[in-house]
Write a structure and sequence with these properties.
With 289 residues, the protein is α/β, with parallel strands linked by helices. It is 56% helix and 13% strand. The protein has 2 domains: 178 residues, Hypothetical protein VC1899 like domain (Restriction endonuclease-like) (Rossmann fold), CATH 3.40.50.10770; 96 residues, Winged helix-like DNA-binding domain superfamily/Winged helix DNA-binding domain (Arc Repressor Mutant, subunit A, Orthogonal Bundle), CATH 1.10.10. The longest helix is centred in the C-terminal third of the chain and has 27 residues. The radius of gyration is 26 Å and the shape is elongated. Helix 3 packs parallel to helix 4 and helix 8 packs across helix 11. The C terminus is likely disordered. A hairpin with a 2-residue loop joins strand 4 and strand 5.
Length: 289
């Protein structure tokens, strides 16, 4: 296992960090490094939390390398993460930190149980952009008595669980993942991600229309998806019986379910699946005919 880093959002509950470390250590995944993400280190609750963590790390995890990432802009710490400029700054810093960890070869554990809810949301967004198969996004749950006590470690009969939050990773071999790793701005990354996903959808629809359906079925699908005709109008346009049009569509539904690997596909679903292709290319007839 390579180097691992735990990034944890922190406000006033140091317990969340130490319990997460205990869980990871118990699973044989203790991180080499911890980055605590907070808004204002000098705020009394945050300062007290950091002091407790410093003392506990020295005692329980003496070899651990840890640092505090204070969210700020132009040398000034953020007072909160509620106003638009604060939100934008927090998103950029969180993205940059995780991106750099990935570029440095770290496996990332991101704990989003502490701090402002805005940071939780942004943590999920950044994980979706940058995580690969090895990285993990976590929420922490603990025994009610343990949570109420604020104790940094669980006692007898007290349970703690790290709950994995599902992320759909691109994977290390994905060109999508590699492309996003080169983008330094999270808002540009979000835009690029949307474009890449649209391209994937376009490619899937294009391959389906070019290789999976017959020429007759393709004609029907062009009129359905590109021109928005109903079955009766398609039958009239192509001089076919309504039953023939229905047969072509049933065959297309079956092939679409196989192509997109879903249980079944109906007319409305197929129109949605083909929409990116027809939107950007006008369909096969519109492009080539």
């Amino acid at each position: 296992m390579g180097n691992t880093v735990l990034l944890a959002t922190l406000a006033s509950k140091p317990q969340l960090v130490t319990l997460a470390l205990d869980c990871l250590a118990a699973e044989g995944r203790r991180p080499d490094r911890v980055i605590l993400i907070t808004t204002h280190c000098k705020r009394p609750p945050t300062r007290a939390a950091l002091r407790l963590l410093e003392e506990d790390f020295a005692r329980a995890y003496p070899a651990l390398s840890w640092e505090v990432l204070e969210l700020g802009q132009e040398g000034q710490p953020l007072q909160d993460v509620t106003a638009p400029p604060e939100i934008e700054t927090a998103f950029r810093v969180l993205y940059a930190t995780i991106r750099q960890a990935k570029l440095d070869g770290y496996m990332v554990h991101l704990l989003i149980s502490g701090g402002r809810r805005t940071l939780t949301v942004f943590g999920m967004a950044v994980a979706q952009m940058l995580f690969d198969d090895e990285d993990r996004l976590w929420h922490l749950a603990s025994h009610p008595d343990l949570e109420a006590s604020g104790a940094l470690h669980a006692g007898p009969g007290e349970w703690v669980r790290l709950i994995p939050i599902p992320v759909i990773p691109w994977g290390r071999l994905s060109p999508v993942f590699d492309a996003l790793r080169e983008v330094t701005d999270p808002f540009e990354a979000a835009k690029r991600l949307a474009e890449l996903r649209l391209r994937e959808q376009w490619d899937a629809a294009r391959i389906f229309l070019l290789t999976k359906v017959s020429a007759a079925e393709r004609e029907v699908l062009d009129l359905l998806g590109r021109d928005g005709l109903n079955q009766a109008e398609i039958a009239e346009r192509l001089s076919l019986s309504p039953r023939t049009v229905e047969s072509h569509l049933r065959s297309a539904y079956r092939k679409a379910a196989e192509h997109w690997q879903v249980e079944d596909v109906n007319q409305a679903q197929l129109v949605r699946l083909l929409a990116p292709f027809y939107h950007w290319s006008g369909g096969i007839q519109g492009k080539n005919g």
